[in-house]
Amino acid sequence: MLTSEQLASLRREYSLRPLRRADLDPEPIAQFNSWLKEAHEAEILEPNGMTLSTVDPSGQPWSRTVLLKICDERGFTFFTNYESGKGAQLAANPRAALTFWWGAMERQVNVTGSVTKSSTEESAQYFHSRPLTSQLGAWASLQSSVVNDRAQLERQFEEARVRFEGSEVPLPSHWGGYCLHPQTIEFWQGRRSRLHDRLRYTRMPAGSWRIERLSP
Q: How crowded is residue 193: how many other Cβ atoms within 10 Å of its Cβ?
């Protein structure tokens, strides 16, 4: 266990590189994909891992890590169980935030925006690209529900395996994609003395993007 003094002393001086306004692509999705490619080439573990934050009807925020699977002009798409905790929260309040953290590169990206479900066709296309065991897992797990023990979960998986043995596993009606359509995208680059570079894109009513530098 770390003491309070040890925790307080944990710090790192960020110094790899600056982030200048002139470095940025006019389009934030293009800029994001450039950084994501660099993170992948740097062999960052799960560079597409992102913290998804939602809010339940009581106003309580919740966060968890999910994987980005599509990034295009629409925004950031991930796939999950629609009947999970995050699914219920997004049904009640279809707005969310994302954070990508690439510590080895001293970078993070923060995104906010509205969320819509993917089409059944897009969800099915991605679902059937997954390993067979992952497809079966989507049928076996009632995500976010209480399970008695590990054995129960494994029984449900075996039941799904037997049920669909020898045939294509169909897309569950409770499973599919969500796309977060960004309203803001902030690019953060660590700098010395905690004077970090923060440059934020904000979508304007006409669809263009305003870029501003934020104080660290």
A: 9
Reported in sequence order, the residue ranges of the chain that DSSP labels E, i.e. its strands, are 49-55, 61-67, 70-72, 75-81, 95-102, 107-117, 175-189, 197-203, 209-214
- Specify whether 194 is catalytic: yes
* Among the listed residues 123, 112, 46, 128, the one whose alpha carbon sits nearest the alpha carbon of residue 82: 123
* pLDDT tens digit sequence for 134-159: 999 999 988 877 788 999 989 999 99
Residue type, 190: G
The span from the CA of 140 to the CA of 153, in Å, is 7
**Other Cβ atoms within 10 Å of 116 Cβ, number:** 15
161-191 pLDDT per residue, tens: 999 999 999 999 999 999 999 999 999 999 9
Q: Tell me which residue of 54, 58, 46 sits closest to 84, measured CA to CA.
A: 54
Cα gap 197→12, rounded to integer Å: 16
The pair of three-digit structure tokens given for residue 63, joined into one six-digit string: 């966060």
What's the whole-model pTM score?
Answer: 0.93
| Nearest CA-CA partner of 175 in 215, 132, 205, 141 | 141
Alpha-helix residue ranges (DSSP H) falling in 15-84: 28-41
Angle in degrees, CA 136, 177, 133, rounded to 5: 15
Q: Among 163, 194, 210, 213, which one carries the catalytic annotation? A: 194
